[in-house]
Amino acid sequence: QMRCNLIIVFRDFLQWHNGLSARLQPLIRINQCRAVIIQDPLEMDLPRGGYYSVSDCKNIYKLNTYNTDFKQRYQQQYQERQFRLHQALRQLNIPAIPLWTTDTLVTQLKTLFV
Question: Which of 29, 59, 86, 93 has its CA 20 to 30 A from that of 18?
């Protein structure tokens, strides 16, 4: 069966769930697929000690990054999420491509399509 279309999923993939795998499986049977993972360095490593407000558009949360135990747990959870995401994408045979919020979008997209 020939694959003639390319589907690119742009997403932060902060939450991977089996429902997403199930929705992608029919698509990848007949199409090429790429996962562009939108990443922010602040998600990987919280900023140095301080109090920060973050929002999910519904609620505002206060982060205390003076608390080194909290920072370590946060970083460990981030690494575990990334591991599960990349494992799931490998199982689906979908290449993962990082896209950083700190770099110029046009430059990064050129590397994808040129």
Answer: 59
